[in-house]
Amino acid sequence: MKIYTKTGDDGNTGLQGDFRIAKSHPRILAYGTVDEANATIGVVLSNTLDDDVRVVLNTIQNELFLLGSDLSNQNLNDLKNRISLDMVEKLEKIIDKFELELPPITNFILPGGNVAAAQIHQVRTIVRRAETLVVQLSDKDEINSNCIKYLNRLSDLMFVMGRLINKRNGIEDIIWKP
Question: What is the pLDDT of residues 105-146, one digit of tens each?
Fold first, then answer.
């Protein structure tokens, strides 16, 4: 099978259920940004990481693929929601576990530190943009509302994970100084 189909040469793309929409449609922008976050996590995974962080990131990559699938399904009569509240709650438990290793936040923290932590902060910003685009999509089309909750929690996890990676590498939080 060839990777190119030429069916998108007119500026449209296919969705689940044989729907075709413009590549500039909010649905495409939303799940394209989810894909961007996923690809950037792939960059993070090219670093040396602790096993627990690596396992979490691998799981998230798979879950982001499911989230993109939820967003690409426009046939509401056939909506197979894959992102669940249970998945959101699992992210919360990971956040709680990682935060046990971190000092409380008393200041705004700037992104940075080592390369992996800086890249995780980049993922966080991409996830925030994806969340915004998914919210915009939800204003126009019905979607699995758990996608918004998942992305909101995921950006929180990326913030905590950036701090955790730095701490484990002996790098203190970079404090914002106005």
Answer: 999 999 999 999 999 999 999 999 999 999 999 999 989 999
Q: Report if residue 2 sits inside a domain.
A: no
pTM exceeds cut of 0.85? yes
With tokens 């701490």, the residue in question is 167
pLDDT score, position 78: 55
Q: For residues 25 and 27, what is the distance between their CA atoms, to the nearest angstrom?
A: 5
CA separation for the pair 66, 31 (Å, rounded): 10
**Side-chain half-sphere exposure of 47, counting CA atoms within 13 A:** 18
Among 77, 93, 92, which Cα is nearest to 152's? Answer: 92
Mean pLDDT for all residues in the chain: 92
The answer to whether position 3 is within a domain reads no
Instruction: Residue 154: give its domain's CATH number.
Output: 1.20.1200.10
Q: Is residue 4 part of a domain?
A: no
How many angstroms separate the CA atoms of 151 and 10, rounded?
Answer: 31
User: Does residue 90 contact residue 153 with C-beta atoms inside 8 Å?
Assistant: no
Q: Which of 84-95 are b and which e, b meaning 16 or more Cβ less than 10 Å from the residue's Cβ? A: eeebbebbeebb
Tally of domains in the chain: 1
Reduced to 3 states, what is the DSSP secondary structure of residue 46?
Answer: coil
Q: Could you tell me the residue range of the domain that residue 150 belongs to?
A: 23-175
